[in-house]
Amino acid sequence: MKAGLLQRAAAAPHIVWSALFILAPMVFVVYYTFTDGSGSPSLENITRLNAGNYLMILVNSLCMALIATVICFLIAYPAAFIFSRMKKKAQRLAILLIMLPLWMNFLITTYSWMTILEDTGVINTLLSALRLGPVHMINTPGAVICGMVFCFLPYMILPIYSVMAGIDPKLIEAAADLGCSPAQTFAKVIWPLSLGGVISGITMVFVPSVSTFYISQKLGGGTFQLIGDTIESYFTGTAVNYHFGAALSLILMVLILISMAVMNRFGEGEGGEIR
Amino acid sequence: MKKLSGAYLVLLFGFLYAPLLVMIMISFNGGESTAHMTGVSLRWYREMFKDAATLQAFKNTLTLSVSAALVSTFLGTLAAVGIERMRSARLKALVMSITNIPMMNPDIVTGISLMLLFVFMAGLIGYTPVLSFWTLLIAHISFCLPYVILSVLPKLRQMDKSLPEAAMDLGCTPLQSFLRVELPFISPGILTGFIMAFTLSFDDFVISNFTSGAGFETLTIHIFAMIKKSVKPDIYALSTLIFAAVLLLLLVYDLLGGREEDMAV
């Protein structure tokens, strides 16, 4: 009995820590959103969201993140499937190789992408040599999406792979024995069983994509701003305004929460159809 | 089909490793440019080792990451034990969802929310500038904690609950039973948590960007500052060395992990 009490109390330091450094900071985002520079209550920051092109920036960020997420999914799903069919040793190596770029700092890899995509960069040098002419790539939305896909693709592959590796091969054999075509086996067995991984992958790619800031500055050439860039500029830039920055962050958080809720509901609906 | 999936994997890894190849190549550049190779040399590696600010930033990052990983592993392991033992399912769910907030929130929001807390509190007691090693450490511990907890919890769930009970029946005090029976069993989870915390902390830029002050520069903050000015291949030399270190670490971890799996069989 004594042991039980002692061990349940073991979570106490973490609970205190979470209250101080996870919950309290969230409260401060709300507090700063609804106050002005002198600390008195104000709705100024919310009304200001309507003015200017902040909503446009928000919509742009959501669209870019959505496109990056879809591309990541399209690349990751077949890759995860191929990995899950390989021999155990090869699987471990493949996953190691997928994780390795994650450990490289994204500031550096984004800079490398500049070298690759520039008008006189690696790709264009190759294209010119083949007489396919230079193609302008840097400072376009495509370049930014390329940077996002590179940074977050492993987060899509890993969860999908881990559910696919867990699918019992006997289930697939059974489906085939019972007369399923490969397409039917995919639709009725593999897809429903891998959906959990797909949903966590989408979450893990969408959230950092929608809030990204450095990638868009470097690969977009500062020609268009995403919500992450805007938020950053209000905290570290020359026009510092914590209150309005907090308001933008709050909106971003709410939008992400809504997206998550919609997706989880979608996931449950899909899951329901399996039975 | 085999050929098709082979080609697919070549394209995939080509995409994932293209920027790393560029980085490694340029780090051996003889010239000043980060875009064109002019001869091969170790010049930028020498320059990097002569650069006191870079070396200091590297030391700072190691200090920070090891401290953050140690504290978050300690707190997180205790927390996992406590959470696993909680009787009230509702309390457990509440604690878990709060724990998960830093994982669900975009890093930029975690960063600015902590910054607002620090700045506000410091303003109250008139202690400025507040952003320093300590605020950075608090921020890093906070975002590492959930990863440690989520690495340790599954191990605790796998453990046969009658083991610690048997230890106590045989005369162990609860603390002895925890240290001698439970701790060895969950230690792989603790190690995974520690390594995750260390690498997350080492690599973090976004949260550090908002919670660090002028006096204490981590490697990523230093790289960011260097990139803002002019980029020379010395950053690539530094990153290539880090890449080599990470590769080594992963291979060692993989070998250790492999042995453990063999033992389980």
Any chance you could write out the topology, listing elements then pairs?
The complex is a heterodimer of chains A (275) and B (265).
Chain A: H1 2-8, H2 12-33, H3 44-50, H4 54-84, H5 88-99, H6 106-117, H7 122-129, H8 141-165, H9 169-177, H10 182-210, H11 214-219, H12 227-236, H13 242-274
Helix pairs in contact in A: 2-13, 3-13, 4-8, 4-10, 8-10, 9-10, 10-13, 12-13
Chain B: H1 2-27, H2 43-50, H3 52-85, H4 89-104, H5 107-125, H6 133-158, H7 162-169, H8 174-203, H9 206-211, H10 219-228, H11 234-264
Helix pairs in contact in B: 1-11, 2-11, 3-6, 3-8, 3-10, 4-6, 6-8, 7-8
Model description:
The complex is a heterodimer of chains A (275) and B (265). Chain A is an all-alpha fold and 275 residues long. Chain A has helices spanning 2-8, 12-33, 44-50, 54-84, 88-99, 106-117, 122-129, 141-165, 169-177, 182-210, 214-219, 227-236, 242-274. Chain A has one domain (53-274): MetI-like (MetI-like fold, Orthogonal Bundle), CATH 1.10.3720. In chain A, 77% of the residues lie in helices and 0% in strands. In chain A, helix 2 crosses helix 13 (242-274), helix 8 (141-165) packs across helix 10 (182-210) and helix 9 (169-177) packs antiparallel against helix 10. Chain A is globular and about 70 Å long. The two termini of chain A are 43 Å apart. Chain B is globular, with a radius of gyration of 23 Å. Chain B is mostly helical. At the A-B interface, helix 1, helix 2, helix 4, helix 5 and helix 6 of A face helix 1, helix 3, helix 4, helix 5 and helix 6 of B.
